[in-house]
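Reviewers of the previous submission asked for a worked example of the structure-prediction workflow described in the proposal, so we include one complete record here. The input consisted solely of the amino acid sequence. No template or homolog information was supplied to the procedure at any stage.
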Amino acid sequence: MVLPVTIAATTGVAPGDAGLASGLLNMGRQIGGALGLAALVTIAASVTTGSGNHPHARPWIRGYDVALLIAAGVSLLAGVTALFLQPGPTALPAPQIEEAEDRAETEV
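From that input alone, the workflow returned the following C-alpha cells.
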C-alpha cells in the first residue's frame, strides 16, 4: 500500500522538487498516523470507562472492539470514495507543454 501511494504522489514531479514532494508525503503519513491513533485510543478509552464493571465482561475488549469497527468503517468509506474519484488532467512537464502549444499553433 505504501509503494503505490508514493509512486502516485511523486509521479510527474520535477526532479528538483522530488525531495520536497517525498518529504510532504512522509510528513502527511506520520501526522495522519499519529492523529488516527490518538482518535482511536480516545474512542476506546471512552467506551471502556463507560462500560462499567461487569464481572464477566472485559471493558477494554469492548473499547477496542468499537474503536476497530470505527477504523474499519472509515477505511471502507475511504475505499468507496476512491472508487468514485475521477483522475484529473495529467500535468505535463514544462518542455512538453511548450511542445504541445507549438504543435497546436502549427495545426491551426
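The helical segments are 2-10, 18-50, 59-84, 94-107. We consider this example representative of the routine output the project will generate in years two and three.
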